[in-house]
Design brief:
Number of helices: 9
CATH class: Alpha Beta
Order of helices and strands: EHEEHHEHHHHHEEH
Strand content: 5-15%
CATH architecture: 3-Layer(aba) Sandwich
Strand order of the largest sheet: 2-1-5-6
CATH topology: Glutaredoxin
Length: 236
């Protein structure tokens, strides 16, 4: 069963939602039969990267809040993240356009490294305060999750996978995604936002019941006394 997740790297609730989904899957009997696919979503596709400005300063300017008000509001998100074992340093997060980071994510997906790349990008942004639009930083993060340097550099030095990013964004509009994170289970059930773990558990179980109606799971019982012929080795 597939779970598709529309998410942006700059979204604090997306990291929290990721942890809550992971927690729900830990308690799910068939978690090994669930395929997670991260979809790109751009909250601010036209954002101009400014490594000298923090997200708090940016929010203060764009929302018309004082810096004190901004800190107070974002502290609620910091506390929410802490409950999921995450450490947010909102005062260190850098104003950065996430488009190149999403292209890197798309590259990672081609070699089954999408989840690892997504995790590394989120941690880099919210915990480590790294500029996720800096080429050298993106290369280093990609190397840490097992991508080849030459392949990463070739991607970042071109517009490769930009069409994939735009396709994900377009698809999100077709299915009515208005905010992220947005989780789509088996293309039948949706979860909007970083809902409590219980909501994920309930929806996963509901989606699974529908999924197995057309995709039955064969349970194999192995017994030491159950003699058989080995097809692979030809042993009987």
């Amino acid at each position: 069963m597939k779970i598709e997740i529309w998410s942006d790297i700059m979204c604090p609730f997306c990291y929290i939602g990721k942890r809550r989904l992971e927690s729900a899957l830990k308690d799910f009997e068939y978690a090994d039969k669930v395929d997670i696919e991260w979809k790109s979503f751009l909250l601010n596709p036209d954002m101009v990267t400014d490594p000298n400005k923090s997200t708090l300063e940016y929010l203060s300017e764009t929302k018309g809040w004082s810096l004190g008000q901004t800190q107070q509001i974002t502290q609620q998100v910091v506390d929410m993240a802490k409950e999921e074992g995450l450490t947010y340093h909102m005062d260190k997060t850098v104003v950065a356009n996430a488009k190149n980071a999403h292209r890197l994510l798309q590259l990672a997906k081609t070699i089954e490294k999408g989840d690892a790349m997504k995790e590394r990008l989120l941690k880099a942004y919210f915990t480590e305060g790294k500029n996720i639009d800096d080429r050298d930083i993106l290369v280093q993060l990609a190397l840490e999750v097992g991508l080849e340097q030459s392949r990463v550099e070739a991607c970042l030095d071109s517009e490769e996978f930009l069409d994939k990013v735009e396709q994900d964004v377009y698809e999100s509009k077709l299915i009515g995604v208005r905010g992220v994170p947005f989780f789509v289970l088996d293309r039948k059930y949706g979860i909007s936002g970083a809902q409590p773990k219980e909501a994920f558990v309930e929806t996963i179980e509901k989606a699974w019941k529908e999924y197995v109606k057309t995709n039955p799971i064969l349970e194999v019982i192995e017994n030491q006394d159950g003699s058989s012929c080995d097809l692979e080795d030809g042993n009987c």
